Amino acid sequence: MERELKSGRPRWLAGLVCVVVALALGCSRPWKREDTRTWEGCCKGADACLALLQELHGPDTGEKWLPPEQACAAWKLGREGEGVVPRLVSLLRHPERRVRGGAAQALAEMEGKATGAVPALIEAYEREPGGLALHALASLDDERAAPAIVRHLLESPTSALEHLGPTLAPVLFDVLENSESSWEALVLVRHVLSRRASMHTETFVPRLRTLLARELGESTLRRPPGTSCPSAPAPGCEAVFDGCTPRAAYVASVLAAHAREGAKGEPEALQALQRADVRLTPVALQALVAFRSPAAVPGVLEQLAVPECRARALASLALLGGVARPAATEPLLRLLATGKEGWERARAAEALGHVGDAAALEALRQAVYAPHSEVQAAAVDALGSYAFRAHAKELVPLLQRVVTTHASPVARSHARLALQGLAEQEVRPAESIDCARIIPARSGGWTLGEGHTSVHLHWEKPKAPPRGSPCAAVRGGDSASVLEAMGEACLVGWDDGEFGGTLEVHEAGRVTVLEEPRANPLQVVRMHGALVVVEGLAHMYFGAGRLVRVDASEGRWRATPWVTLPGAPMAYALDEAGDLVVGTTDQRLDAFVCGRAGTFAPAHVVRVTGDGRLAPVEPDGRP
């Protein structure tokens, strides 16, 4: 179902679309501790905010994120002058952890005004490495903190390490260069440097190339000290970091994260691929894909022929685009015609759109009305790609029919965007109806969250996992958007909005990277016995979402790009049959906050069945 939301016509009733419109971000209202939109009024003046900083509600639950009182007070104190710094420094020794954390966060918010607090913050960090003192030191970016960070690296919050400034960030690279660094340290540093690659590209890429060349120059690839690899692991296509992974793989993985600038390291990545090491090969191939190197195409096509690696290969071909033409066209057309599952055929269609070979046009036209909803939507998306712009005259009539008559809301959404690009015409969705009528008449409730400047599916971080959980020992869990136990393994996701994210599986002595950096994991849902990650992004004038299925085959984890959603996921519920009902929007909601007139956003409520088919939900709740 497809609807239009207009800021001039609010309908403050229950239901997804109503909730979306009612979230008037940035509007002034009285302070409520559970509502971040009201924080401007939580306290006024240094004395009041210092008092609020020390106000406690209930016992300390151990959550790493500050309660509303401390978080809001720290935010307001960050605007005060240097005169408040000594008072905050004294609170760094407060007996209550929440107050100590609030004081450190306030000093972090003050940035340059708090340079005099650096010695006290270093002492606080040494006493409590897992606290918030490092967040303040990262903000201040003072070289005096470097030795302490090296000493307490594995005890430090990953979220703080990710935000080290240009003065302190090289400390992490030093760990990568150090041949004595442990497996745990290399896993942590690889993760942090990969997630913040764009911040240090010019400085780090030359060092990464030199370091990778040095590691590859060894006759026997070196592994972290203390690790063991009793037998060669089975070949796979995902990046796995365990006792069998050579140091070169950690370096190549970070180099790949630098994408365009990292492409200068293509010779080293190709050399790494030629070493034919089971653990190094997938990482080197992913690096060549990130560099959009033609040298990656043969290896990716080999993966395409292996069912367990097909999802990875299809994603790689989409990223390689025209570089894979014409070699990838025929295998992709064959998969589009004969793939066993809908997602395989759909992702093949999407890859064909990126490859841009005109030989695929007729097959894509036919796929627009294929039996599976995923294939239909992917085919429309492919036909609307920039690669087929030269064929706009013949494609525009088809896309116009899709907008007005196609059953798939995703296909209609893709067609609207395609027409805006190919024909340079704005196509608005249908008028909305009473939003009270679109509530799915099923059990379960909507889950929704909001922040200072955006509305999204899952705002609050996962609760701290219980002791004994496989997720309890995950480094970086303090900044994760997803923490889900899967037997003895933990599925971990990090979402950085428009900067991408990561989806990994952590086991004892092993980390498998399923998606990086093109991921925005928000929430885990279990439906029909499958574990599904809801991913999405609402940014600027664009909204996108998808469902990713995670499972294991012969002891190897994999992520399957299962269903494409018609926009960014905003709310979800499971119905009586166990199907997933999702509410989405094609557009970021900041455009019509506080009743600004003249803007619109297409909204959808869709049902996803156990076989990956997507259908709009009708006003009475039926598909």
Quick tags:
globular; single chain; 623 residues; disordered C terminus; 5-stranded antiparallel beta sheet
Fold and architecture overview:
The strands form four sheets. Strands 1, 13, 14, 15 and 16 form a five-stranded antiparallel beta sheet that branches. The protein has helices at residues 16-22, 46-53, 68-77, 85-91, 97-110, 118-127, 133-140, 146-151, 158-161, 170-177, 183-195, 201-216, 247-257, 259-262, 266-274, 280-290, 297-304, 310-320, 329-338, 342-355, 361-367, 373-383, 392-405, 409-422; strands at 2-6, 239-241, 449-450, 455-456, 482-486, 489-495, 501-507, 510-515, 521-527, 530-539, 542-553, 556-565, 568-574, 580-585, 600-608, 614-616. By secondary structure, the chain is α+β, with helices and mostly antiparallel strands. Helix 18 runs parallel beside helix 20.
Write a brief caption for the model.
38% of the residues lie in helices and 16% in strands.
Shape: globular
Coarse structural class = alpha+beta
Instruction: Characterize the main sheet.
Output: 5 strands, antiparallel
Terminal-residue CA separation: 9 Å
Ranges where pLDDT stays below 50 over 5 or more residues in a row are 1-28, 430-460, 588-600, 619-623
Whole-number radius of gyration? Answer: 25 Å
How many helices does DSSP assign?
A: 24
Percent of residues in helices comes to 25-40%
Extended strand count: 16
Proportion of residues in β-strands: 15-25%
Mean pLDDT: 84
